[in-house]
Design goal:
With 145 residues, the chain is of the alpha/beta class. Helices cover 38% and strands 14% of the residues. It has a four-stranded parallel beta sheet, with helices on both faces.
Length: 145
């Protein structure tokens, strides 16, 4: 992991998203512009099947960071927990893009592509937090009686 941070991007691909965005264009942006290591779609990425797909890719592809493009991270707390070494960031693609902008509009597509660029860059640059272990002093002072 010292060499290169590998980011995998996973996008929901149900009818609601497929009918609003060009997922091939999103893939192109993720891989060529944002330099993600992997881009995959799944009809139900926020499900047990989607989590299994991501876990498999983490092992096979050596991914260090994951970007999930589906719903707000509040929708599925704890679903995308792959351990302390794998950082996950969720893009609220539905709330921020699909539900709030016209489907198949140029501006809607550009907004989704911008979110891909921003989240891949953010996720690749953020460092994992280091555990803070305070020094413990094993002495006691008794005042009073």
């Amino acid at each position: 992991m010292a060499d290169e941070i590998k980011v995998g991007v996973y996008c929901a691909a149900d009818d609601e998203i497929k009918n609003s965005l060009d997922l091939d264009a999103l893939e192109n942006v993720a891989l060529k512009e944002a330099k993600a290591a992997l881009f995959k779609t799944h009809e139900h990425i926020s499900s047990a099947e989607g989590v299994a797909l991501i876990k498999e890719d983490i092992e096979k592809e050596g991914l260090h960071r994951i970007v999930v493009m589906d719903r707000s991270p509040r929708a599925y707390p704890g679903l995308f927990d792959f351990g302390p070494e794998i950082m996950v960031d969720c893009v609220a693609l539905r709330e921020l893009v699909v539900w709030s902008h016209d489907p198949n509009d140029e501006d809607t597509q550009m907004l989704a592509e911008d979110y891909v660029r921003m989240y891949v860059a953010k996720t690749a640059k953020v460092k994992l937090p280091e555990e803070d272990k305070p020094e413990v002093v094993n002495t006691v002072l008794v005042i009073g009686g």
